[in-house]
User: What shape does this take?
Amino acid sequence: MDAKAMIDSLSDQFKGGIYDTNVESNIRITAKVKPENIKDVCRYLKDKLSFGHLCCEFGVDYPDRNEIEVIYVIGSYEHPVVLTLKAILPRNNPEIESVVPVYWNANWYERETYELFGVKYLNHPDLRPLVLPQEMLGEWPLRKDYKGFPNKTAKNLV
Amino acid sequence: MDNTVGPSEMIIHLGPQHPMMPGPFRLNVKLRGETVVDSEVEMGWIHKGIEKILENKTYLQGITIVDRICYLAALTNEEAYVGCVEKLAGIEVPERAQYIRVIMEELFRIQSHLLGMGEYASFVGFVSMFMYTIKEREDVMTLIDSVTGARITHSFLRFGGVRDDLPEGFKDDVKRVFTNLRKAIDSYEELFSTDSIYKARTVGIGVLTPEVAKDIGVSGPPLRATGVPFDIRKDEPYLVYEDLDFKVCTQTAGDVFARVQVRLDEMRESMYIIEQCLDQIPQGPLFPEDTPYGRRTPVMRVPEGEVFHRVEDPRGEMGFYMVSDGSDKPYRVKIRGPVYPTLQALPPLLKGVPLADIVAIAGSMDTCTSEVDR
Amino acid sequence: MAEVEAVATNDKEEMPEEIPGVITTSSSAIADFLKKTKIQDVINWGRKNSLWFTVNAMGCCGVELLSTGMAHYDTDRFGIIPRNSPRHADVLIISGYVTKKYYHSLKRIWDQMPAPKWVIAFGDCAISGGPFYESYSTVQNIDEIFPVDIYVPGCPPRCEALIQAFVELQNKIVAKKDKGTDY
Assistant: This one.
């Protein structure tokens, strides 16, 4: 099955749930997904299209559009195609279903996106800060309007 | 992990500063007697916010920062970053520069495996092994030093090429070092495969099955030790890897012993790749001709777009996702490190093993905390 | 995870006031007296020749730290031996950026080390923040928190630089100009 067939199969399965599909090359495809469908889409990808390897999952902040994109980069151990799935969430209350039941290693990616962007994952088994201390929760440092960067207190600079 | 302890149970914190640790992370293990019941990894002790810093640096300045993501794989990090920009801007790298990149990245793979293996050997009780591997590693470091002028962090790759050419006499130096290194690797292998104490500590310990390994998303030597021939250099060739002859080293056992064996084989394979490159390398420019790209590209605007580029790190799949908005700084860079899922996979692997095996299992994963935390 | 509460042992009240034949003191009067005499030179000679350091690899510099203690550079010949436990060590090498999360642990490692003890700031990150000086996650100006004796610039500095740092530290100890606490 080549890249085009995969994306067609996916958009046939989820009519309305998958939109803006694009075949960039024969190893890269992109699609946008409605946030409420994300878990079913991932389940289908893993079971039927052998996309078994979640490369990464992260957020991108777009303050102008008042949106946060959550991007899932999903590869495979069987074929070289890499799929980029995007879910678009509102910036003031970003919430999306967790994909940990499908991709086990999404656990840390989601914890990190939570503490850096404030994306709330529903039904996540253990949604705690991962890399930052507890008291920094709520600052969302990777959002574009974060005030604490750059930190100008260093003294011994040359 | 549940923090309540039952009768004859206790919780031990390993780290953040612990001899087992290649960098600071904390492993909380709950023990019943000497057996691990449950465990939990705490991360972020050296989280430095590289993704945020990269958003505020120009593309050229970014090369210096990505060097420091993982100090044992600086050149492959650069390759992933530079590859992203080259894909977005459509830059063709001249063939000579591609060959130099392959040579340097494979040399880096060798030194990383030597250090990782030495560290791991010292965890299971072979401290003298660490001395041996570091001695060989210094020779490889001298080779790298002679090209890039630095030992750990290089800023060697540039968009469209490399900063410097190979020095005169490099081929002879490589030949001399590799003669010694081949002997050394053979002796390591002999030591590992004949020592009964070592085998008792490693064979059948920390077994990953291919299904579990795929499910938890590991890549690199821990995955290849289970028999899955997943290697970005073969599956999604970048640079000149398509023209080179090499095989993907796999083992089937999936235990601690197999993971170390994969690294030993990979070092031999890397040496073979470098020798091929040195024989085949063509003469030519280091940067694409008739373009502004060179050693110094002061202001560079990259066309709008998004790209995911991945390369084979010494530890597995290293990927960069870059979002460009057309300005001179990247809008967002996501770093997908190979150790991130590997370290995450420690708790299920450690379930039910004795306390003494924790170091063997964690060490054989060859973790690099700096890259997990970023 | 719950942190272990510090429990004060050997309380002043519990200790017997006077032990027959033994003079006990809680002040540093003896140390202060010794400092004025020639015997301090002998003590310092001993101290400078066994500077054991902690191996806490915190960043890129940590790799150079490991290599320095190993076969090729072999600091054992100067009496400089890598130790994994802070309780065995005399020199704390801050080998990287100190993050907000790690800062408390590092402070604790420092407190666990027995005096006399010294600090080497190894690499740009420990001196000024290095490439990460603007970051939201790091603690700035480490030398205001730890009494740093030697600064080793470089990103990362080479192994030879660390050896030179130790030589400088030895010179400082001999000259009694170091900040080693509690002589």
